[in-house]
Amino acid sequence: MQEFKNMPLTRDIARELARKYSTMTYDELDVLESLLVPIKYGKGEKILQEGEVCRNISYIEKGLVRQFYFKNGKEVTEHLGVDHSIFMCIESLFKEEPTRLQVEALEPTLVYALPKAKLEAAAMRNVNIQMLYRKILEESLIQSQIHADLVRFESAPNRYKRLCDLSPQVVLRAPLTYIANYLQMTPETLSRIRSGVLL
């Protein structure tokens, strides 16, 4: 994949995660770096299939992913993740049960996986890695709550406006149909809202 010929060093990703979620010594960065597994996905490639067990917390270094499930034969988009963000199927990850969710790359995507079992083992021995683990989980839960509140309490135009504020790159890069689905509105409604927003 041409897009990733200048892949960042795993050390740089460890530093990026440490800056975002915790403070770390050189030794702790060594441990974190040793846990990270770089994985490249092509556009349209499945990262996780329904029925698989989610075993990783994944950090998107570059790319765009969609987490979705099927309800009454229709796809429901639950999450759209972009550069420098985390995704996971939290129920499958912690219960170690097959997921009903699927994750696909909407662009060529470079992910750094943190295997949960290895991360937990490292967290047992190291307070700063424990802190990083906790902060990642907190962020994931807060994101889920924000999305739930968005679709429960906000009008359609406000949902779109909030998404523009929270995730401008998602709005610019994700296909309109998935954005509409994520915001629980029809593509036609979203088109009308976008026209209004752009006027």
From TrEMBL:
Annotated InterPro entries: cNMP-bd_dom, cNMP-bd_dom_sf, RmlC-like_jellyroll
Any single Pfam family the record assigns to this protein: cNMP_binding
Annotated ranges, domain Cyclic nucleotide-binding: 20-140
Gene3D superfamilies: Jelly Rolls
Protein name as catalogued: Crp/Fnr family transcriptional regulator
Record organism: Segatella hominis
Species classification: Bacteria, Pseudomonadati, Bacteroidota, Bacteroidia, Bacteroidales
